[in-house]
Prior knowledge:
The protein is mainly α and 112 residues long. The chain contains five helices and two strands. It has a two-stranded antiparallel sheet with strand order 1-2. Mean pLDDT is 82; it is low at 87-97.
Amino acid sequence: MLNFPCEELKAIDGLWVKYSNERFGFSVQKQIYVECGAKLDGKYPGDAIWEEFGDRVGWRKGGKWLNYDELNPSLSSPKGIFPRWGFFARSQRRAGGGGGEAFGSLLSHKDL
């Protein structure tokens, strides 16, 4: 993830940010991730930080991880709820909320 092509990542993020009125996008998620106490070192931040991030962006409710189809795709959704790639959703279901390491690597990208 740290080696994902810079221009493509910036373009994808820019589209999310622009068309969501700065509510969604990797850079939005990165800010929330850091506010939760995560370090941008590409490592799993630990369960407490990952769960707080999930709570803040709306990926968890009542202490449980939501499936992708349970998310509400609207501008009234929590800030940072999207994008949520299927990879992370599948990882979370398999690991009871895991997937944070791969996602943390993406958010640690220098160009976000």
